Amino acid sequence: QVQLVQSGAEVKKPGASVRVSCTASGYTVTNYYIQWVRQAPGQGLEWMGIIDPRGTSTTYAQRFQGRVTMTRDTSTGTVYMELRSLRSDDTAVYYCARRTNGFDIWGQGTMVTVSS
Amino acid sequence: DIQMTQSPSTLSASVGDSVTITCRASQSVDVWLAWYQQKPGRAPKPLIYRASTLESGVPSRFSGSGSGTEFTLTITSLQSDDFATYYCQEFETYTFGQGTKLENK
Q1: CB neighbours (10 Å) of residue A87?
Q2: Which residue among A62, B34, B42, B75 is least crowded, i.e. fewest CB within 10 A of its CB?
Q3: Residue B33 class from Cβ within 10 Å (0-12 exposed, 13-18 middle, 19+ buried)?
Q4: Cβ within 8 Å of residue A60, ≥6 positions away
């Protein structure tokens, strides 16, 4: 079964960093782009960035430039999203999704709570 | 960045109705647009890619059309399972629309 499995919920203090993982199973991870999207409570979907199949190229949304890093480990089939200098308004569910024609497979989401 | 404007923000309809949601882009995205359905507490479910192609397993009562800057998602013969929030996403800068909540009248 083709799926993306994300790491578990995180609680962080303001100023800290968080790293969320997204592991692919049932397909070869190096063949596909992966995007990261977040959704604050009660809000819409916000695009954060995308990483190419081999992890050599990334594109980030301007508002996250300098604060986010997306990487991938092709040996384990895992993609990572690290967000630094966390603020309370970074509290959200973070999703990864695989691109084929569209973004057809999504992870289950990871809740990140930023609170002092 | 490209701005995506969805309308309406909220749509009230009944089972059996047909509804249309519109997504407008601030500049042309050709046919590079997708539609998603999302229910509370769940990840988005892809419905349509490349403006009009249904993802595998999506019922034929869903259809998409458009190109350039204006796109529509139409759902015919609404089922109870269709009440959800719908988003468009363009594939030039990957911006999402703000969402349309389809609620049961």
Answers
A1: 11
A2: A62
A3: buried
A4: A48, A49, A68, A70
| Residues linked to residue A97 through DSSP beta bridges, in sequence order | A35, A106
How many angstroms separate the CA atoms of A36 and B55, rounded?
20
Both tokens of residue A4?
């993306």
Chain segment A39-51, per-residue pLDDT in tens: 999 999 999 999 9
Residue A75 has pLDDT above 90, yes or no: no
Cβ <8 Å between A109 and B46: no
| Predicted confidence band of residue A91 (pLDDT cuts 50, 70, 90) | very high
Pick among A20, A36, A45 to test the B interface (most B CBs inside 10 A): A45
* Confidence at residue A30, expressed as pLDDT on a 0 to 100 scale: 67
B71 at A interface, C-beta within 8 A: no
Residue A90, CB-side half-sphere exposure with 13 Å CA sphere = 25
Closest alpha carbon to A86 in A12, A36, A19, A6: A12
Cα(B80)–Cα(B84) distance, integer angstroms: 9
Q: Do A45 and B49 touch (CB under 8 A)?
A: no
Structure tokens at A73: 């480990």
Q: CA nearest B4: which of B88, B100, B65, B101? A: B88
